[in-house]
Write a structure and sequence with these properties.
434 Repressor (Amino-terminal Domain), 5 helices
Length: 86
């Protein structure tokens, strides 16, 4: 399991949530129950569909994770330019 989930898009975030849930040995139904959501909502989240923020936060809490905002990482080309010495 990861200490920090990291993603820049909904599809990747859904995949991360699914991976964390499975790593815990938790079914979609169990996650839904722990979050106070419907299983269909967990399916939508894991598919990367757009849901409201409170729904997302409930799902994250159900797998004992939290949200943390961090600076966006630069891509390789940006870093290369920053350190090119020009």
């Amino acid at each position: 399991m990861h200490d920090m989930l990291s993603s820049n898009n909904l599809s990747d975030l859904g995949k991360l949530l699914r991976a964390e849930r499975k790593a815990l040995g938790m079914t979609q139904s169990a996650m839904a129950k722990a979050a106070g959501l419907r299983r269909e909502t967990i399916i939508r989240l894991e598919a990367g569909e757009n849901v409201d923020m409170i729904t997302f936060l409930k799902a994250v809490a159900a797998i004992n994770k939290a949200i943390r905002l961090v600076d966006k990482r630069h891509d390789y080309e940006t870093v290369k330019e920053l350190f090119s010495g020009d």
